[in-house]
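Lab notebook, bench 4. We co-purified these components, and the gel suggests they stay together. Before we commit to crystallization screens, I want a quick structural picture of the whole thing.
Request: model the full complex, all chains together.
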Amino acid sequence: MSSESKKRGIFGLSYDGEDRVFGALKAVSTAIIVVIGVFPIYWMTQVSFTDYQTVIDTVTVVPTPGIFTLDNYVILLDPAIVRYLFNTTVVAIGTIITVVVVSLVAGYGLSRLSFPQKENFARVLLMGYLFSPIVIGVPLYQIWRSIGLLKTRIGLILALSAISMPFAVWLMWKYIQTIPEAMEESAWVDGASRWRSFRDIVVPQCRPAIIAAALFAFAIAWNDFTFAEILLPTEETTTFAPGILRTINQRQFLPDAQIMAVSLAMTLPPLLFAYFMQSYLLKGFQIRAL
Amino acid sequence: MTEVRIEGLTKIYEEAGNDIVAVDDVDLTIGEDEFVTLVGPSGCGKTTTLRCVAGLNKPTSGTIHFGDRDVTDLPVQERDVALLFQDIALYPHMSVRENMAYGLKIEGFSREERHARVADAAELLQITDQLDKSPAELSGGQQQRVALGRSLVRDPAVFLFDEPMSDLDAKLKAELRPVIEKVTDEIGCPTLYVTHDQEEAMTMSDRVAVINDGTLEQVAPPKEVYEDPASEFVSSFIGQPNTQFFDGRIRAVNGTAELSIGDYQYELAKDGLEGWDGDDIRVGIRPQHIGVSEDPADGIPAEHLLDEPLGDETHSFFDTEFGEVIVVTDPDFEGHNREYGLVLDATYTRLFDADSGVRLA
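Here is the predicted assembly.
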């Protein structure tokens, strides 16, 4: 075969030429990801392990033995920070449970039962995406204040669940549609009630979707700033993101190295969660027509 | 034990304002340990009928009795039926053993009892060594055996099959057919088997119920359905290769009936045709009973198209004025696209009303 006949690639080059172009493009995109995405994490990590006075005085690259320290992490024992972390954890877990339970039931209903305006309901559901937390936050502030949910963790859990719900319900709906109805019918024939077949047959098979929805809800709740700032205006119940900002503003002296230490501690749980669940996550996102 | 009595079963679906009659006034009784096959083309209402019997669909009108028990309004959970689905529907997150024991678990049997029953069923089905595997590791045939086992352990009052073998290949089907018969014999309850495969219907059933457009055309033992079809539809649906049809006309001549197909006359030694003098009719005959004559003037002239040698016989295709005709010929037959005459054996012709398709003689 002549090399002319091989010039069929996207760029009209020979296959070898195409390979080189693709290789170069891959290197460039990798570099962009590293600079924008990984460098801040590296910076945060190295600063958090460096003696805070050194960070103030000079620019370091690696925490060498002379300046390496774990002292910055002592701030994690600060009562205010402990409270923020605790609140964030409670809110995140509460949001995950609410989102998973509600989306399972809603997704099941959407895929198995017929009710008027079902398709329109699903469409309206997706419109929830169009509203950013700050848009919903202000009216929610007034509503929560009048019904007594302001300054409570439950109030924040409800708000965070609400914004996670469109995605989670949609995911669950499409996922449950991939489970053949005959499986449930088979269970009913065996004498199982609808609830029992839902619990024994549908829910176990939804595990990838449950994990994907949980991770999504966790990411929303853990990283939320807007809702927490608006709905938890007092020091006692606020979560980490607004809490750390208030701490920085209020305290006379809070070294960068300690801020980095707290930030890294906050970053680790989502990273670990995503890492260990990634095989499930992929399955959860793999459904066609999503 | 119980028998299944279906009386006046009608199911109407409403779709976009239109009423679609899926099942129209079906009456069918399945005896205590009888195996009845409901056979028909896709969309004829056979699965809907079965789902009504199972309790998965609610009939628009009509009643269903299991023995003395009126189950028409009972939910599926309380009917004590077993149902095998086309897509097998084993639970992928449970082992084969758990799959088979699931029904017993719901009924509240002890762990020992469950395992003992599963072991017995597995032995009968020859899947004892598969019990700890997950369903995904099994072949299609083994999966259907497990599904059979799931029903077998429960000892149901009625056994229903919804095209359980349509996803399997021909060889596996032939292998599974005796297994299904063994299991239904073992349970000894009324069995309703839905299929579109007339071969399954013919080989397994005590009686075959042929359904078309939501209406039962004929309910009879397999041999009778084959030899004595009640309608043109039954005749065309049952049997391989299909019954061949010709347009004909009946004339009364000297006390006997004469059948003419185009320019060719046949004496018919059949009674009951007096009233049909001069009427257009449809003539059906099995391809096995059509003779091929070397003389085109003998019988219906036909041009040979092609041969399909099957080893023990050959299916030969001919072009006639009535369209393409298939004839079962001798295994050595080779047509070479010449002109032939097709001779119908008058004793095997079946006559049907040209409009309604109802059998005349």
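Chain A touches chain B at residues 180, 182-183, 185-193, 196, 200-201, 204-205 (CB under 8 Å). Worth comparing against the SEC data before the next meeting. Chain A is about 70% helix and 0% strand.
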